[in-house]
Amino acid sequence: MNIRYIVELNEEERMQLQELTGAGKARVRRVKRAQILLAAEQGHGDAMVAATVGVGTSTVYRTKRRFVEEGLEAALSEAPRAGASRKLTGREEALLVAVACSDPPAGRARWTLELLAEEMVVRTGHEQVSRETVRRRLAEQSVKPWQRKMWCIPCVDAEYVARMEDVLDLYSEVPDPRRPVVCFDETPVQLIGETRIPWPAQPGKPARIDYEYRRHGTANLFVFLDAHQPWRHVKVTERKTAHDFARCMHELVEEHYRDAETVRVVLDNLSAHKPAALYEVFAPSVAREVLRRLEFHFVPKHASWLNMVEIEIGVLNQQCLDRRIPDRETLCREVAHWQRRRNAQGARVKWMFDVCRAREKLGRAYPAPVSAEFEKAA
Questions:
Q1: How many CA atoms within 13 Å lie on the side-chain side of 243?
Q2: pLDDT interval class at 74 (50, 70, 90)
């Protein structure tokens, strides 16, 4: 028995459907169902509505039926579909995840969807497993075996903890002008020039640069940052050798902190960062005098995040260096402008991590004491 469903819309429903069809933001199927209901209300037959909207007559019939029986929202929404049963059982899905997280076969750098599908055929009783089945099951578990991230994995031993807490104590101290804490690091810069003149931005059009560029070598930036005062200094050099490091340390105590008794420098474990470098550049008396006023505090290996200047270098890259800089002269000029402006603004790095929080957050990674008595004494 073919039942003829009649669509009768109230004013609110009619306005909702008109807004839906005119907005242009809803899904296509939802818009077509709204058009079906608006056309059906005007008394057009199913065949005419189907031809006007561009759907089948069965779609028109189902939409009208759901509206009459279940209401407007049900008519606009997707009806639940049974779909095919899952190809892999729960045990087989767990096996797929385990295989995807294991080492790939010999001769292959990583697992691919095709490789995993072939492996599941070998390990299960299925005659065929599609690439799409593997993709969907891995997506549900957020497993992406073809991706790999580079990461520094530190070894948190007693030396790591000792260096970390030493640096954190420096940051938490009351500022002392006679014993300033200066964070020091270096970063490379690519000198890149344009092959064609860029097009400036215009209303409605972003600035445009040619994808081709010309390399003009590299430069190095030595960055100093006072941990307790709004001061930073950037020195541009050609390289980052031990001799360049020695000259930086000489300038630090003889020019920037001439009145300080001791400058405590926080730095990483680069091979060039060694006191002997000053003896290679300066006379022994000068080198000894500079080292007498320096106190080096090395961050743990694979823990550059403990060096406060790393944050400042990130700001420098984002605010000043995120563009093509063709030569060293331009680099020196632009970095100097950035440095003066940031110092004049009184910008500082607000460091929140201290020894107490380190023991709270990394307590499980701390090495166990040899004796419980020593732990109680601490």
A1: 6
A2: confident
3-class DSSP assignment, residue 164: helix
Q: 263: helix, coil or strand?
A: strand
* Sheet containing strand 181-194, strands side by side: 232-237, 213-226, 181-194, 263-267, 294-298
Whether the pLDDT of residue 22 is over 50: the answer is yes
Q: Span 261-269, mean pLDDT?
A: 96
Which burial class, exposed, middle or buried, applies to 137 when counting CB atoms under 10 A from its CB (0-12, 13-18, 19+)? buried
How far apart CA 189 and CA 217 sit, in angstroms, is 9
Tell the CATH topology of 158-199+211-360: Nucleotidyltransferase; domain 5 (3.30.420)
Instruction: Decide if 227 contacts 182 (C-beta within 8 A).
Output: yes
- Quick one: pLDDT at residue 78? 77
Contact indicator for 227, 235 with CB cutoff of 8 Å: no
Query: Domains of the chain: which residue ranges?
Result: 11-76, 90-140, 158-199+211-360
pLDDT digits (tens, 9 = 90+) for 114-159: 999 999 999 998 999 999 999 999 999 999 888 888 777 778 888 9
For the four alpha carbons of 284, 287, 291 and 296, in that order, the dihedral sign comes to negative
Decide if pLDDT at 372 tops 80. Answer: no
Which tokens in the block code for residue 89? 């059982």
230-253: average pLDDT? 96
Strand bridging mode 181-194 / 213-226:
antiparallel
What token pair was written down for 261?
């008794």
**Alpha carbon of residue 107 to chain centroid:** 31
Residue with tokens 């939409």: 63
- pTM comes to 0.66
The answer to whether 228 and 246 have CB atoms below 8 angstroms apart is: no
- How many residues are there in the chain? 378
Which pair of structure tokens corresponds to residue 193?
């020039």
User: How far is the first Cα of the chain from the last one, in angstroms, to the nearest whole number?
Assistant: 88
DSSP single-letter state for residue 365: G
Write the single-letter amino acid at 127: E
pLDDT band at residue 1 using 50, 70 and 90 as cut-offs: very low
